[in-house]
Amino acid sequence: FQNENKKKVKLNLLSVTKSGRASLLDSGEDFTMLDDVEDDVDDDLPPLEDAGGGKKKDSPAKDATKADQTPSIEQEEWLDVLGNGQLRKKVVEAGAGPDSRPQRGQNVTIHLKTSLTNGTVVEELPNLSFTLGDGDVLQALDLTVQLMEMGEKALIEAGAKYAYGALGSSTPAAPPDSDLILEVQLLSADDAPDLELMPPSERISLANRKRERGNVLFQRADYAFAVNSYGIALQITEATSRVDISQQEEEELLDMEVKCLNNMAAAQLKLDHYEAALRSCISVLVHQPDNVKALFRKGKVLALQGEYAEAIKTLKRALKLEPSNKTIHAELSKLVKKHSEQKGAEQAMYKKMLGNPTNASVQKHRAKSSWSLSWKWLFGATAVAIGGVALSVVIAARN
Question: What is the pTM of this model?
Answer without folding.
Answer: 0.70
